[in-house]
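A quick aside before the break. I want you to see a complete sequence-to-structure record at least once, exactly as it would be stored in a machine-readable document. Don't worry about memorizing anything.
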Amino acid sequence: MDGIEVKDGIYKGTFTVTYSSGTQTGRTTLELKDGRFSCSGNSDRIPAGGSGTFSADNNKITFNDENPWTADFDWGLILSGVYDYTFDGKKLLISSNNNGVGQYKYDLEKQ
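That is the input. The structure line, written in tokens, reads:
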């Protein structure tokens, strides 16, 4: 399952964040095109979204968000930084564990 390069396209699915206090989920859409990404956010910031550049290598995917954000919420909800990923040609799973703050997971399917 590992080793397939992430393809440009539109991916839809769910975002899940797990804190010690509980789990929250929200729907999201991720678009990848020519080294750039755009992730839809929700009003409750589950997820917050993000957009900018990305690169993928050795089952790690790095998102460089280019947006200004307010400081009144968990920035782990922004799609930014280094994540582990698996891609089987259809399903894209992106996950990160943020220093004990929370676990962030995108469970997406190529449209």
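Two observations worth writing down. The domain at 9-110 is CATH 2.40.128.280 (Lipocalin). The radius of gyration is 13 Å. We'll return to this after the break.
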